[in-house]
Design goal:
155 residues, rod-shaped, 48% helix, mainly alpha
C-alpha cells in the first residue's frame, strides 16, 4: 500500500507512514494518477493547388496584358511589317526599326489574346511608318536638290 499524501510505500500493518507521518488506516491504494490528456491531433500540412492569378478572377477587372474576349466583328489588325522593312531600307532607318518593333508587338499581342493591345501597337506602327516615310522623302528631296545645285555650280 502507498501513502496518499507523499506516495511512499507503507508496510502492511503499519499505523503511520514512515515518510510523512500520516495515519495508515486512511491509506488504501496507491495514489491515483492524474488522467493523461489525449495527445493533440497530429499536424498535417494543408494541401496547396497551383497558384492562380487572382486578378483574373475579379469580376470586371482588367489589367495590362489581360486576355480579353474578341468581339465577333473584331479582325486581326493589319500587319505593317513589310512596309516597316521597306521604310527601314529606303527612307528612314530609325523610324523603320521602331515600326518593325511595333508590327511584331501587334502580332504577338494578338496571339496572346490582348486584342486591344494588338490594335494599339498596329496603330503605332502605322503612325511611325507614315512619319518616317514623310521625313525620308523630305530628306531625299533636299539631298537630290543639293546634288543638283552642286552639279549646276560646277558647270
Amino acid at each position: 500500500m502507498f501513502c496518499q499524501q507523499c506516495g511512499a510505500q507503507v508496510e502492511p500493518g503499519a499505523k503511520f507512514c514512515t515518510t510523512c507521518g500520516r495515519p495508515a488506516q486512511d491509506q488504501a491504494a496507491p495514489p491515483a494518477a492524474s488522467p493523461v490528456p489525449p495527445p493533440p491531433p497530429a499536424y498535417s500540412q494543408p494541401s496547396y493547388s497551383q497558384p492562380q492569378d487572382y486578378r483574373a478572377t475579379l469580376p470586371g477587372a482588367s489589367y495590362p496584358g489581360a486576355p480579353q474576349a474578341a468581339s465577333p466583328g473584331m479582325q486581326k489588325p493589319a500587319n505593317y511589317l513589310p512596309w516597316a522593312i521597306a521604310v527601314t531600307l529606303c527612307c528612314c532607318v530609325v523610324g523603320g526599326i521602331v515600326g518593325i518593333v511595333y508590327s511584331v508587338q501587334a502580332n504577338s499581342k494578338w496571339e496572346s489574346g490582348d486584342y486591344a493591345g494588338a490594335h494599339k501597337a498596329a496603330g503605332s506602327a502605322r503612325t511611325w511608318l507614315i512619319i518616317s516615310a514623310i521625313i525620308g522623302l523630305i530628306v531625299t528631296t533636299f539631298a537630290i536638290m543639293a546634288n543638283l545645285a552642286t552639279i549646276m555650280a560646277t558647270m
